[in-house]
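[audit] Reproducing an earlier prediction to check determinism. Same input, same settings, fresh worker. If the tokens differ from the archived copy the diff job will pick it up downstream; this log only records the rerun itself.
[audit] input (97 residues):
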Amino acid sequence: MPQRTVVIGSRSGLHARPASLLVRAAARQPVAVTIARQGRPPVDARSLLSVLALGAAAGEPVVLAAEGEGAEAAIAELAALVADDLDAPEPAAGAGE
């Protein structure tokens, strides 16, 4: 089963907005993906309540895992999302132009 350990990049951890973005991205994957904290059982990454219940904090490592056709690509996409600071303010429209 392919898996990857990734450090949470969002300043608030996997709460509210970051968790919601992760869950939506996981739901679009062709395979089921799980996410787990160290020493805890994995939970379905498509379940907002389960992801929020992890209580994963900023800078904490989590393990993403999946099995089946497309598992590696699914994990890679979700790992990049988890590692990103999803709490960072988005640039204003037209900024930097």
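[audit] rerun output stored. Observation attached for the diff report: The longest strand covers residues 61-66.
[audit] end
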